Amino acid sequence: MFSGSRKYSPLSSSPSSSRESSSSSSSSSLPAAPRRSPRALQRHGSLLSQYTSLLESYTEGEIRQLISALVERYSQAMNSGGHELPLFPRAGSRRKRARARHKPCELRELEVSVSELGLGYESDETVLFRYCSGTCEASVRSYDLSLKSMRSRRRIRKEKIRARPCCRPLAYDDDVSFLDAYNRYYTVNELSAKECGCV
């Protein structure tokens, strides 16, 4: 199949000697291939061993949950127009996420069906659901700092307490009335937030 007049030398010379002669003749014309430093390989190996030991500490169910969460995140990114998820996010995106985490506590709203509220009613009617969202970092009091200190010192152990203020409704909107799928009339109170604050 090959129509060339290439002649091969007999196997008398060892591969290492032929490699040395060819490398000495072509060392001036070809640049040397970049090599990875041993430190980088060592760092990569230590990271790999850390992740391996971390994954070995999970149960099979936890690994399945982790994989399904990653697949869901990837599919959401693909559906929102993103081409791929970066392995190492940029510093700018980290800053944006940090700013998003520190938004002040405020009132937001969302139009949802009654069935989506999760209260057990079947209805296609839509309601305006108002909720509280944001952080309360600026509202940390001496109480919160002392409570956090007592928990870190293990002076308070078993009680379920929260050592930081939470963004919650301070007042609720008017009652919401609707018809369900069977034409029954219902009224739900304290459904939507009217005012939000850090408590």
Automatic annotation (TrEMBL):
Q: Give an example GO molecular function.
A: receptor tyrosine kinase binding
The biological process GO terms on file are:
glial cell-derived neurotrophic factor receptor signaling pathway; nervous system development
Question: Pfam families, per this entry?
Answer: TGF_beta
Q: Where is the composition biased (Low complexity)?
A: 1-35
Q: Which UniProt keywords apply?
A: Disulfide bond, Growth factor, Secreted, Signal
Q: Does the keyword Signal apply?
A: yes
Q: InterPro entries annotated for this entry?
A: Cystine-knot_cytokine (IPR029034), GDNF_fam (IPR043401), TGF-b_C (IPR001839)
Which Gene3D superfamilies does the protein's record reference?
Answer: Cystine-knot cytokines
Q: Where in the cell is it found?
A: Secreted
Q: Where is this region: Disordered?
A: 1-43
GO CC annotation, single: extracellular region
TGF-beta family profile domain spans which residues? Answer: 94-199
Q: What is its main location?
A: secreted
Q: Which SMART domains match?
A: TGFB
Q: What does this protein do?
A: Growth factor that supports the survival of sympathetic neurons in culture. May regulate the development and maintenance of the CNS. Involved in the development of the neural crest. Might control the size of non-neuronal cell population such as haemopoietic cells. Acts by binding to its coreceptor, GFRA2, leading to autophosphorylation and activation of the RET receptor. Heparan sulfate-binding is required for signaling.
Q: What family does the Swiss-Prot or TrEMBL record give for this protein?
A: Belongs to the TGF-beta family. GDNF subfamily.
Oligomeric state and interaction partners are given as: Homodimer; disulfide-linked. Interacts with GFRA2 coreceptor and RET: forms a 2:2:2 ternary complex composed of NRTN ligand, GFRA2 and RET receptor. Also forms a 4:4:4 tetrameric complex composed of 4 copies of NRTN ligand, GFRA2 and RET receptor, which prevents endocytosis of RET.
Protein name, as recorded: Neurturin
In its UniProt entry, the species of origin is given as Pitta sordida
**UniProt lineage:** Eukaryota, Metazoa, Chordata, Craniata, Vertebrata
